[in-house]
Amino acid sequence: MRDAILNRLVAIITAAVLVACVLFALASREVRTTGGLL
Amino acid sequence: MSLLTRGTLWLGLYFHLIVLPLVVCGVWPGGNTGRPFATQFGIACGYAALTILVLEFALISKIHAVSGVFGQDALQFFHRQMGLLATLLLVVHAALMLDSGYPLVWLNPFAPDAPWAMRWGAIAAWAVGLLILLSLLRRPLRVSYDSWQLSHGALAEIVVVAALIHIVLFGGYSAGLPVRIMLAGYALLFLALRLWFQWVKPWLLWSQPWEVVTNVAELGDSHTLTLRPAGHPGFVFEPGQFAWLCTGKTPFHKDRHPISMSSPAFDEPGHPVSFTIKALGDWSGQVVPALQPGQRVWVDGPYGVFTADRCQGPGYVLIGGGAGIAPLYSICQTLAQRGDLRPVYLFFGGHDSSRLIFREQLRQLAQRMNLHTVFALEEPGPDWTGERGYITAAMLQKHLPAQYKRFPFFICGPEPMVASMEKILPALGVPAAQIQTERFVMV
User: Fold this and answer.
1) pLDDT less than 70: residues of chain B
2) d(CA B423, nearest CA chain A) in Å
3) Helix, strand, or coil here: B73?
4) CA dist., res. B210 & res. B275, Å (int)
5) Measured between alpha carbons, how far is B356 from B324 in angstroms, rounded to an integer?
6) Among candidates B175, B164, B136, B171, which has minimal Cα distance to B152?
7) What spatial distance separates the first Cα and last Cα of chain A, rounded to whole Å?
8) A21 CA to chain B: closest CA distance, Å?
9) Which residues does residue B214 pair with via DSSP β-bridges, in sequence order?
10) Cα gap B250→B45, rounded to integer Å
11) Which residues of B touch A7 (CB under 8 A)?
């Protein structure tokens, strides 16, 4: 049971770390614009 | 502060330390924004992998403030799983960096035109690959626990040092002062953890030696070592806990083994402590049987949350196999010594009757407490009157009282037995919170 709980915790941390990485990449990625007013 | 609060705080700190580099790099990018999403994601994976790898040392450094909350055995398991996550992040990091245009040949640290930053990155990648392979394939490759322990520590140190040098030499985000200060902080944390584990902790143990009182051969190719504290009060432990034994000339010796206490637990320190060790390798098969009374050894403990004192109920069900009987025997003796009248149902599985450690002692103990023993043999002789085969759901139901679902269950033994019980018990209606397991093989 303990291992199952720990595995669930690892899964939650994995998901949270991946979300943090995605947010970091989204915030710092190149932004392509179509020109015009921008 | 309650255990739950402390656990939540430690977990919060752990997660924040993993993502802190992303926050620092995000706030002080230093002109490193504007790369494609995949490249930035790869960089983030690299930073997260590094911090997880640094924190891996914290998980195994036996820091009492942390191990007292989660249990060192749980931390070892968590360390293993998080190591796999760090490896996955490193693979993603390398793959996305290669995809963004870096040449494949730079994965070779000896490539003639590779920049030093890439050579160090490649060294870290190969070292982590070797480390994971050795951990997963230690048994099939027949690598001894001692050799594995030495190589694991050395490779892990190479990984972290090489990865830090890789990041600093590469520049990019790490060219900025805030990120450099942050990296210096992680490097200091890494050094402090290594210093604590390799030097400070053994130094503290050195002034607290233990002395072998007796070394008795048991059934099942096992030996029970009884130790007494020499010149210090020793420690108080809870029945079911374990300690690291070091039989080298000093506690600085790298050869340390996690072993459960098999003697009763007392409320005050100063009592001798016994460890029952089954011959499974070089140390347990050759060094332990040769230990003589009077010899000095080093005991680092107690650790673990597999203890009856933390999980109360109207009675207990103990399920053990092989050397997994040691912590269960400690629980039984402690309850007997405390005059505890609650019923205890002990199921003990073994190959044949000659391998049932403490069989006779358990029969004698049953006269002093409310203990019901059920022995199950895989290969019983013709005279055997006990149970036959593996411990099954039907066997448990046959011997347990009607109110068994309210009892805490403690399971310790070989991996297949523990895994089998983790399926059987929930099917029998035992709540998950009442099932405590311990695997005596950590790697």
Assistant:
1) 440-443
2) 9
3) helix
4) 13
5) 11
6) B136
7) 56
8) 5
9) B226
10) 41
11) 81
User: Taking CB atoms and an 8 Å cutoff, what residues of chain A touch B77?
Assistant: 2-3, 6
* Residue B52 tokens, joined: 């997880």
Q: Are B348 and B378 in contact (CB under 8 A)?
A: no
Pairing type for strands B210-218 and B242-246 reads unpaired
pLDDT value, residue A36: 46
User: DSSP class of residue B35?
Assistant: B
| Sheet with B210-218: strands ordered across | B256-260, B242-246, B296-303, B210-218, B222-229, B273-278
Q: Report which residue type is found at B426.
A: P
In this prediction, residue B357 carries a pLDDT of 92
Q: Which residues of A touch B29 (CB under 8 A)?
A: 28
**B213, containing H or E segment:** strand B210-218
Helix (H) or strand (E) holding B384, with range, is none
- Chain A interface, best mutation among B78, B90, B409, B434, by max A CB count within 10 A: B78
| pLDDT (tens digit per residue) in B11-37 | 999 999 999 999 999 999 988 888 899
With an 8 Å Cβ cutoff, the interface of chain A facing chain B consists of 1-4, 6-7, 9-10, 13-14, 16-17, 20-31
The whole-number pLDDT of residue B305 equals 85
**β-strand B256-260 against B344-350: which pairing, if any?**
unpaired
The residue written with tokens 């030499």 in the block is B169
